[in-house]
Task: structure prediction
Amino acid sequence: MATRTLADGPARATAAPSAITARAVTKTFEGKGKLVHALSDVDLEIEAGQFVSLIGPSGCGKSTLLKMIAGLLTPSTGTVSIDGATVTEPLPQIGVAFQKPTLLRWRNVLDNICLPLDIDGTRNAEGEARAVDLLGLMGLAGFEKHHPKELSGGMEQRVAIARSLITQPSLLLMDEPFGALDEFTREDLNDELLRVWQHEPKTVVFVTHSISEAVFLSDRVVVMSARPGRVHANIPVELPRPRERALRNTPEFYEAIRHVRAVLDDARLGERKGEH
Amino acid sequence: MATQLASSVADETAKPPRPRGGAGPKSAALAVLIFVAIVTTWHVLATSGAVSPLLLAPPGDVLAALGQMIADGSLWPHLSATVQETLFGFVLAVVAALVVGSAFAFSPIVRNAVYPYILISQTFPKVAIAPLIVAIFGYDLAPKVVLAALLAFFPVLTNTIAGLTEVSDDEVNLFRSLRASKWQELRYLRIPNALAFIFPALNSAAVLALIGAIVGEFVASRTGIGYAIQQFTTTGEVAATYATLIVLSVFGLALYGALTILERLVRRNR
Result:
């Protein structure tokens, strides 16, 4: 493997991006004596290398769907498969980032990023060098020895993303990773995420509440409706790449947001009608 | 603090390191002042006749008695007995609590079934059964070790269970997504998490073990600091009584210090 650094050299020879297929997926939870239909008959096709956002009102099951792709939940009926293999447990080619950074407070930043390598038993000098590169790419160069309690929320989430990338996953699953951050920090992290994604092409599934974030990041926005959760619409985002900060000020960007918002309103209003 | 911050992070401030406890020299000066005040008050109370000499000896006399005990070697058998009882009891309690606590943590059925009884035994004043324990285990080392262990056991047990089980769903999901084995989850998540709970409990356990040992000596013994205190009190050797209490206090502090060093060593390597 080449020893070029991540930040300067061209993309590394990573595993080819993964493709995802969900077929007739339903998920029913049992809670307090009654059944909750979190997902109903979801079909979803995600091509290798795409950046896809799942967006929808609370309770539409977008996090549930993501956890099924991650292998952390199993569908009640239907199947989820990655690269043709049915998901029954977390697969080795995934990286996951959660809403909370979930850093281990007794480990310093470098050791937190290297946790997946420790668990794989593959931590070595090369892995640590990659961790340092990723940290730099996330704008946190020099913070290797800091502990989580010394970091702000945005910095912690940067470390969590570096950790999810350390194993060079072909599929990155992100469950509202920037949901708890302020607008400015969130935009910074969106920029950094795209930068990393362009260096290491991989499939990304990104759950969010933010329309502008979904539009800025994605090739496609999947709009979901609630009660029961299902796919309401697939909206391709035709904005050119690479996308930079300036894109956020363009009329095309606003137009794409308006479009997604209209579809999302439709999904939510339809749901409200259905309640009565 | 690192200086090579990327521009995107420059406006985002890292939390400052926590201030260190106290304001250094000022705190030290105040501490000395408090010590001097206590000793002076003590001296005045004891020598002015405000407090009967049958109840309080002046600090000078206490120090002399302490020196005498050390010089003639009469302190050592007592101290060594109490130290042994406390340490054996403490170690026994900690090992038992860690084993039982881990078993509880990994079997919710056992935990839920047994927990009410643990709660009962926790609220029960265990020193009340000291005479019974002496009756069962005799007059020597054993009953004191048992009492010390009994008192020290519960705080370590409850904190071991809490530390091993109180991990968030996100943390568990993270480890599952990394395909960690149960052992790895224990090694990298649950045990390091539990240490933060267990070490504070060890400090209470050490103090409780010492209390257990002394109570055991009060009930029935031929040696030990508790025995010495009783002897000196009955024979009216007030200065010697206080000297023994000081020895007890120094031993307590030494235990605390040893545990602090142990904690630092373990945390560095987790």
